[in-house]
Amino acid sequence: MAVSLNVLAVVAVLMLVCGFAAGWFAQVPAPAQPEERELVIGALLPLSGALSSSGESTRVALELATNELNEYLVELESPTKVSLLVEDTATDPAVALEQLQRLPERGVNLVIGPDSSLEVEAVKSYADDHGIILISQGSTAPSLAIPGDNVFRFVPDDTQQAEAIAQLMWDDGVKLVIPVWRGDVWGDDLAAATKRSFETFGGTAAEGLRYNPEAAQFPAVLERLNELVSDAIAQYGDTDAVAIHLMAFEEVVPLFREARNYPLLGSVRWYGSDGTALNKALVSSPEAAEFAAKAGFFSSLYGGFEEGPIQVQIQERIGRTPETDALAAYDALWVATLACLAAGDADDAASLKKALVRTANSYYGATGWTALNEAGDRAFGDYEFWAIEKVNEGYEWVRVARYEVSPGSPGMIQYEKPSWTAPSRRVLVIHSYHEGWSWNEEIQQGIIEGLSRHGYALDRDYELKTFYMDTKVTYTTPEQIEERAALALVLIEEFEPDIVFVNDDNALKYVAVAYTERYPDRRLPFVFSGVNVDPTIYEPITSLERPGGPITGALERFPYYEGFALAKRIFPNASTIVLLADSSPSSSFVVSTFKERYMDVVNESPLQVLGPIQVGTFREWQETVTAYQTEADLLGILTYHQLRDENGTVVPAPVVVEWTVHHNKLPELGVLTFHAEDGYFAAVGVSGYKTGLYVGVIGGEILGGTDPAIIPLVDPAVIEVAFNLERADALGITLPAEELVKANEVFHARG
User: Residue 694 falls within a domain, yes or no?
Assistant: First the structure.
C-alpha cells in the first residue's frame, strides 16, 4: 500500500529536524544483517458499546496506518517493525482501565486511545503513575486539559466545539436552548461550555436535564423535557426561538424512538455534538433517523479538512463516512511511531513525551497540522455540522455546514448548499439601482441577517436571487425603466419566489405595485425599503397603519434636524447651509417632502436652509457649488447620481465627488452614510444595513405566517453618523473627540 505524499514529506522534514538517524541508529550499532526490532503500540478502542461506530472506523484507520508505516520502514531498511495491539473497551471506563492495566506486562507503554472522556478520566491516574503515554483520538472534555500529564489528545477540547454549536444556534434564531446530556465528565463539561458560549451571544440556556449514561429508556426525561419545551414556547411565542441541545452517544437511538410519541418535541429544532455525528446506529434505525431528519438534528464534529486518500480508503472498507476520530487516530499512530524512533528509547516516558510534542508540532497528516497546545491537546481546528437526510429507501449523514476559525477573528458558520435537495423557500431581492452600489449591498446584507433572526439561513432554508434594475446610472429614461421592470416581472414568474424584497422607489412602483395590480389574487408578499414617496398613492396600499394588501415595508425619511444639529455642534459659528440635489424624480420627491416635513414644520432649525436647489446637469452642479462658496457656511448633499453631461449621459458619481472635493471649500453634509464613504466630509442619514435588517425581520415574520396586510408601514428611524477623515484633513478640520466616539462609521479615505 502506498504511503501518502503528505506523510512522506513530513517524515523527510522530521529526519532533518529531529535527527532521525542520529537519534535512533546511533544507539543501535548496525550489524551486517540487523535483527528485526518490534515496536508494539496499544490501541484501546470502543469496538462495542455506545461508541462502537467510532471504534469500527478507528480500527480500520489504525490498520491502514500500521501497514503504511511498515512499508515505509522497509524502504528505509530500518530494523523496526510496528505492531498494533488492539483491545476493546466496550465504551466502559472500568473495562478501559482493566485493559490498560494488562498492557505493561506485554511490553506496551504507548497507547492510542481511549476514545471517550469518561474512559480517559478513568485510566488517567494509572497511566500517569506507571509511565504510560495515552494519545486519545476523541476525548474532548475541557476538565481533562491538564499540562504535564501523560494524556495527549489529537482533537481540540470542547470549549471550541461549544463556541461552534452556540454560534450555529444563535445564527438560526434560537433564543432559548434546553440542554439534555449524559451525566459524565464529557456531557457535564460540554453542557457547561455551551451554556457559557450561548449566553455570550445573548441567548438563554435553561437548567436542562442530566440523565444516567447507562439508561436504555427515557420516559421520565422526555416527559419533563416536553413540559420544559411547552413552557418555553409559551414564553417566546415561537417554536423557532426554542431548541434542544442533546449531548449523547449511541443512546440517542432509543431516545429518539421514544421522542416520536411527543409531537411537541418534534416541533422544535434539535442540535447534537461529536457524540452523535456520523453515528452508524442512528442512520440504521428508521424510526430514530426519521425523527432526527424532521427535527433538523445538526451534529457538530471536529473536521473541516479536505477529503484525502486515507478517508477514502476507510470509507471503502466500512461503507460510510468515517468519524473524525478515525482520522485523528491514523495521525496519532504515525506521530507516535516517529516520536519513538526519534526518542530512541520507547521505555523513557519523559523523552518520549518531548519527542511526541516536537513531532506533532511538525506533522501534517490526514487531519492537517497536528500542533498541540500546552495541555497536550490539539491547538486549533474547524468544525463541521452533519445532518440526517432520507436518501432513496434509507437515511444518510450529509455535511450541511462548517464552522471556520481564523486566528484573531470570531468563528463563522458557512452553510453548504445540499446537492441532494433544494432549500424549501425562494427569496428574490430587486434593487432599483446598479450592482456594486454600497447602499444595495448594505440593504442586502441586512435582509439576510434579518431573515436569520427568524431562523432562515441562506442556502439551507432558502435560495436567494438578486436582480438589479440599474435605473440610476444606465437605464434612466421612463421607457428604459419600464423595460427593466418587465424583466424583473418575468424573473418573478420563472423563479416563483415565496417573498420579494424591493429596494427604493422604482422597484416599488414598477415591480411590486405593477405585479400586485396585475395579479391581485396571487397575494405574493412584497417588502419594500428605501422608499421616499408616500406609498399610499398606490392603489394596492390602503394606509400606513394597515396596508391591507400583500405589500409592506420601511419608509425612508432623512434625519435633517439631527444632521443640522451635528453640524452646528462642530461649527458653532455656522449659520447657513445650502442644499443641493439632482433633478431625478426621486430627488424631486425628496425635495418636496423636505419642504413639507421640515421647512414648513420646524420653527427653530439649527441652521438656516438655502434651497433646496435642484440641477439637472453636471455643469449646473459645478456652477452652483462655485457660486455658494461665499454665500453659505456648509454644503448639504442630497443626491448627485443623476447629473448629466452635455450629451445627456449620466456622469458617474465618483466623478462628481472628485470634482466637488477639489473645488469646494465648504464642509459637506450628506444625508446617507455612504456619502461620507464616497468622500464628502460628514453624513447623518439612514443606515442601509439596519434598514435591510428591519425589512429582513419583517420578511421572516411573513415567511412564518404573518399577513403583510397588517404590518404597518413605518420609518424605522435607523440613523447613523459617518465622517471622512481624509476630507476633514483636506479642509483643515479637527473633529471633536466626543463626535468621533459617537460616530457609527469613520472612513480614512475616499471610496
Answer: no
- The pairing of strands 382-391 and 668-672 is unpaired
Q: Which of 337, 342, 349 is nearest to 19 (CA)?
A: 342
- 3-state secondary structure at position 638: coil
Q: Could you tell me the pTM of the whole model?
A: 0.53
What is the CATH number for 257? 3.40.50.2300
* Structural domain for 497, as ranges: 425-555
Residues 23, 108 within the same domain: yes
CB distance 276 to 244 below 8 Å = no
Relative to beta strand 110-112, strand 133-136 is parallel
Q: Let me know: does 320 contact 56? Beta carbons within 8 Å.
A: no
741 falls within a domain: yes
Higher pLDDT, 32 or 52: 52
Residue 707 lies in a domain: no
Over residues 409-465, the pLDDT tens digits come to: 567 888 775 443 456 789 999 999 888 788 888 899 999 999 988 888 888 889 899
What is the Cα–Cα distance from 721 to 383, expressed in whole angstroms? 38
Q: Which residue has the higher pLDDT, 22 or 534?
A: 534
Residues 92 and 173 in one domain: no
The answer to whether the bond into 34 is cis (omega within 30° of 0) is: no
Helices (H), 571-652: 585-594, 618-627
Rounded Cα–Cα distance for residues 634 and 628 (Å): 9
Looking at residue 677, its amino acid is: E
Query: Which of residues 523, 555, 587 is at a domain's end?
Result: 555
Whether residues 577 and 548 fall in one domain: no
Q: Are residues 534 and 435 in the same domain?
A: yes
Provide the number of structural domains found in the chain. Answer: 4
pLDDT in tens, 547-567: 999 999 998 888 889 999 999
Same structural domain, 535 and 667: no
Q: Is 396 in the same domain as 533? A: no
pLDDT (tens digit per residue) in 81-130: 999 999 999 999 999 999 999 999 998 999 999 999 999 999 999 999 99
Express each pLDDT in 158-168 by its tens digit: 999 999 999 99
The confidence score (pLDDT) of residue 661 equals 95
Cα–Cα distance list, 274 to 62, 115, 210, 231 (Å): 20, 12, 18, 28
- Going by C-alpha positions, the residue among 389, 394, 398, 400 that lies closest to residue 285 is 394
**238 domain residue, yes or no:** yes
- Whether 342 and 388 map to the same domain: the answer is no
Q: Are residues 367 and 391 both part of a single domain?
A: no
Task: Tell me how far CA of residue 271 lies from CA of 118, 399, 513, in angstroms.
Answer: 22, 14, 42
CB atoms within 10 A of CB 108: 20
Cell 456652477 maps to which residue? Answer: 623
Lowest mean pLDDT among 75-79, 243-247, 353-357: 75-79
